Amino acid sequence: MAAYLLAEASVTDPVAYETYKQLAQTAIAQYGGRYLVRGGASEVLEGGWSKPPRLVIVEFESAEQAKRFYDSPEYRAARDVRKDAASMNMLVVQGI
Length: 96
What we know:
Elements: E1 3-11, H1 14-30, E2 34-38, E3 54-60, H2 63-71, H3 73-82, E4 86-94
Antiparallel strand pairs: 1-3, 1-4, 2-3
């Protein structure tokens, strides 16, 4: 069953974040992920949502595969670069 990794990022260092994006993109592809949303324009339509500064949605074949990506050495290297470049909220959700 497909699963979706959702990430909300607040970028504080755009130059370092570009390096993170390149490393993350490579790791996502290596673990079979596919970007569905990558920081496009968003608009709140209803309720108390706070408009995220940057939203990313990645599809994986399963939640287990998304977690393998997240825990991989490749993505750990990306996270190390990101630690001073952005704050991140991330979750994985099962599809239907």
